[in-house]
Amino acid sequence: MNPLIFIGLKLLTERKRQALVSILGVALGVGAFIAMSAVMNGFQSYFVQQVVDVNAHITLKVEETEDPEKILRLAYGSDILSDVLGSKPKELKDKITGYKNFLTKYQQDDRIIGVAPHLTGQAIINYGTKEKSASMIGIDETLEKKASIMDQYLEHGNIEKLTTDRNSIIIGKVLAKDLGVREIGKKVTLVAPNGAVYTLKVSDFFNSGITTIDQVRVYLNLRTLQAILDKPNQVNELIFKVKNVDEADKIAADISKDTGYFAESWQKAYSNILDIFKLQDWITYMIVFAILIVSAFGIFNIMMMTVLEKKKDIAILKAIGYEDTDVTKIFVFQGLLVGLIGALVGCALGYLIQVWLSSLDFNLEGMIRTKGFVLDRDPIYYVYGFLFAVIFSFFASFYPSWRASSLFPVDIFRSGG
Amino acid sequence: MNTIIEAKDITKTVGLNKILKGVSLQIKQGDLLSIIGVSGSGKSTLMYILGLLDEPTTGEILVNDNPINFKDKKYLSYIRNKKVGFVFQFHYLISELTALENVLIPTLKNINNNKKESEEKCASLLDSLGLKGKEKRKPYELSGGEQQRVAIARALANDPEIIMADEPTGNLDSKNTRIVMDIFIELNLQGKAILMITHENDLAKETNRIIKMNDGIIESIS
Lengths: 417, 222
Ligand SMILES: Nc1ncnc2c1ncn2[C@@H]1O[C@H](COP(=O)(O)OP(=O)(O)OP(=O)(O)O)[C@@H](O)[C@H]1O
Ligand SMILES: [Mg+2]
Description:
The structure holds two protein chains of two kinds. Chain A has helices at residues 3-13, 16-54, 68-76, 89-93, 99-107, 141-147, 161-164, 173-179, 211-214, 222-228, 248-259, 266-269, 271-309, 311-319, 324-359, 380-405, 409-414, and strands spanning 58-61, 112-127, 130-139, 168-172, 187-191, 197-206, 217-221, 237-242, 262-265, 363-365, 369-371. By secondary structure, chain A is of the alpha+beta class. Chain A has two domains: 3-52 and 273-415, no CATH class; 64-260, no CATH class. Chain A has a six-stranded mixed β-barrel, surrounded by four helices. In chain A, strands 10-11 form a two-stranded antiparallel ribbon. In chain A, a hairpin with a 5-residue loop joins strand 5 (187-191) and strand 6 (197-206). In chain A, helix 2 packs across helix 15 (324-359) and helix 2 runs antiparallel to helix 16 (380-405). Chain B is an alpha/beta fold. Chain B has seven helices and ten strands. Chain B starts with a strand and ends with a strand. The model of chain B has no long low-confidence stretch (mean pLDDT 94). The site of magnesium ion has 3 residues of chain B, from helix 1. Residues 14, 17, 19, 37, 39-45 of chain B line the site of adenosine-5'-triphosphate.
């Protein structure tokens, strides 16, 4: 065995309690890092994946603007200005003119997988004595399947029912629960904004796992909704599914420019939540960083104490021929070993916490609904945690080791040790 | 006889304090010499410089007739490891290591050494110093005299040409002082040079040369 390792090992193993405390400190930091990363990133990527896929990658809609002229210009061309006072901008506002051309155009775009038209509107739904408001989306079932994965969230896979039975309705799982609708085939009453009442048959439940969506959303056949809202052949949204979700921003900008309507990418639509996630990441990593700093400080402290207590040993080692770098190595080795063992124990600890978390079976009802934690068990977090710990302990032991190596043995011998 | 270490007009100044004011000395193979003098006369300082632990302010140190460059720390370490064995008033044994491991430490510095051979050699050193059966003991499980003998064994581990001892018996009772003194005389008979600082004139008288220091200079050699 290398003599430096031999000496370092002896110095370390003869002070087991201190060494164990340092190791435990590092292990806690690494374990916490691995467990927290898995929970946070698992939650975030689950959420992003859900919202990105449930809602469109890009939604093209009529720009929400206070400027009625712009709408009119969009609808009738730029020479309409003289008619502004006499027209009713509100009614014209919510409509994408020439959407069929856009559909054919963007179906040929390489970057886009699918385009589908939506008509959206509000309504009240009654079931028995219960009454809830709902956001209706009228869809073309065949196009919708290409542009979103909403069909994957249907509990019974009955999306074709919208075509085969024009009076069917798919309602959000939470909404269904709120209304008391427990099985498909039940009839609900829908009150349109103009007061007209329709009876529709529940053909499926939509369960995306995102509470805010599942408690309001209902799907109807596009034609049915156009009839209900009295907007024949109109749509007010186009949704796009793109090949690369990270390019959604850029493609959305292109679509906005080409169509004159407002194309919003999922990143824009969820920028609030993405910002919150960033903040959440910061807080998480600050905490983990703090734990690692504390454990690094523990190593530093113990190393420093060892160096001070071991001055005599350092002096004699140097006197009998060990060089400054040898002494540095003896002490850095101890710090690294503590970091290394701590990191390994921490990885095991992180793994155990992950196993435990994933074994938990509970119904989480919040921003999203899942059974237990959604964990991101990417092995890279082990690598990061391990590297952080080893690098931290290296730096933590560096100063004490340098202090040890720069000790002048004569000073010790003179003071009588 | 060959000169092992030679000091040429050494001075040592720390701040305004002139500790050594021009000391010249030759130590040859097989020498047995003692340094005496009142406290503060510069005995230890001279020994540290001769042992390459400290640097003279002016003057020159020659090891085997080669002048030493005190900037070459690696070489200083090498010479201390190979040619010099130190013994101090305090034993400076590493308390985490056994007696045998403590003696092994200087031999481990040279990774070309066969560990097994070194261990056997160090064990027989301990044996020859009357510590048979105590190789596995930790320093605190040994008496003061035994600790000092382990320290002497450590000084001998790399078979140095010279032993430098700074008041090696300062902490010992008369019985153990006798034992240590006999070890030094025996080692000298085997050919090792011995340089010993002492306050006890009786011990100094047993050596071949007595160097008397006073106020940073050699007052007399007898
Ligand atoms: N680093 C230093 N700074 C200032 N003065 C020093 C330093 N080292 C030694 N001295 C002084 O140098 C003088 C000689 O010290 P040294 O230890 O060589 O004496 P000594 O002869 O070994 O004495 P003793 O018999 O007490 O061991 C002393 O007066 C001491 O105070
Ligand atoms: Mg002295």
